[in-house]
Amino acid sequence: LGQRLIDVMPYHSEWRMKTEEDCLPFCAVSSSRCRAIVYDVFQHICHYFTDDGTEHAILFHGTVYFRVASKLCLGK
């Protein structure tokens, strides 16, 4: 089971992303806003959030949740 975010709207979504790793470059480019990513495994969509999701994450089948722990990791 993965996680998804409830009660928050993504600031951007990208379609046709083959893997969850494909979500990471856009988050790095928009690092001033990107705090979390939810990847939908079945629809191949990356959703980008300004909220880190720690208070909004719930278990949900078919998703992968990433939280930006440090801005330093986005620069690499």
Automatic annotation (TrEMBL):
Q: Which SUPFAM superfamilies match?
A: Hairpin loop containing domain-like
Q: State the source organism's domain of life.
A: Eukaryota
Apple domain segment(s): 10-65
This chain's protein is named: Apple domain-containing protein
Source species: Toxocara canis (Canine roundworm)
